[in-house]
């Protein structure tokens, strides 16, 4: 790992007699780390391999630091370390969905379970303005960022 790469493998813990979990992706994967870590059982470990703005997808298609991260996860961490489950978290766009099955297939060569988590809901306008304007109306969902993405 080099400083120019900015790969964050800041938590890499494994234990042969425990259930080992690997969380990969961008900054939205990091959002889940503390919640998952707080809820770990004594027989579980949680590792984190993230870099801001990176989508854990193959074929590699991001900027160099993202490609370096995903390459390291797939060709080093998942092969040389044992993880019982890999959680892949991304800020997916509609155009990314086609790559998810290939990514899952590749990760499943190294683990029995792969969990893919999508992004949190984003809106085109500040969230507090939507209920103020529309109340309980389903009309507010028209302003989800996902209803207009390409």
Q: What is the secondary structure topology, with strand pairs?
A:
Layout: E1 8-11, E2 19-25, H1 27-38, E3 44-50, H2 64-80, E4 85-89, H3 100-107, E5 113-117, H4 129-134
Parallel strand pairs: 2-3, 2-4, 4-5
Antiparallel strand pairs: 1-3
Protein name: SGNH domain-containing protein
InterPro entries: SGNH (IPR043968)
Organism: Paraglaciecola psychrophila 170
State the fourth-level CATH superfamily of the largest domain: SGNH hydrolase
Q: Beta-strand percentage? A: 15-25%
Instruction: List unreliable stretches of 5+ residues.
Output: 1-10
Q: How many β-strand stretches?
A: 5
Strand line-up in the sheet with most strands = 1-3-2-4-5
Polypeptide structure, described:
The chain is α/β, with parallel strands linked by helices. It folds into 2 domains: 8-119, 3-Layer(aba) Sandwich (Rossmann fold), CATH 3.40.50.1110; 122-150, no CATH class. It contains 4 helices and 5 strands. It has helices at residues 27-38, 64-80, 100-107, 129-134; strands at 8-11, 19-25, 44-50, 85-89, 113-117. The chain has a 5-stranded mixed sheet with strand order 1-3-2-4-5, sandwiched between helices. The longest helix has 17 residues, at 64-80. The radius of gyration is 17 Å and the shape is globular. The protein starts with 7 loop residues before the first strand and ends in a 16-residue tail after the last helix. Mean pLDDT is 81; it is low at 1-10.
Concise structural overview:
The protein is α/β, with parallel strands linked by helices and 150 residues long.
């Amino acid at each position: 790992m080099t400083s120019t790469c900015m790969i964050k493998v800041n938590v890499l813990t494994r234990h042969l007699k425990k259930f080992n979990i690997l969380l990969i992706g961008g900054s939205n994967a990091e959002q889940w780390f503390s919640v998952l870590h707080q809820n770990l059982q004594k027989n579980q470990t949680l590792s984190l391999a993230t870099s801001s703005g990176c989508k854990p997808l193959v074929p590699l298609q991001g900027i160099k630091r993202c490609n370096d991260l995903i390459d390291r996860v797939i060709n080093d961490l998942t092969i040389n370390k044992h993880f019982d489950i890999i959680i892949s978290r991304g800020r997916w766009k509609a155009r990314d969905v086609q790559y998810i099955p290939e990514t899952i297939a590749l990760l499943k060569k190294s683990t029995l379970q792969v969990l893919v988590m999508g992004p949190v809901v984003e809106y085109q306008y500040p969230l507090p303005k939507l209920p103020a304007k529309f109340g309980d109306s389903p009309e507010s969902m028209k302003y989800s960022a996902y209803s207009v993405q390409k």
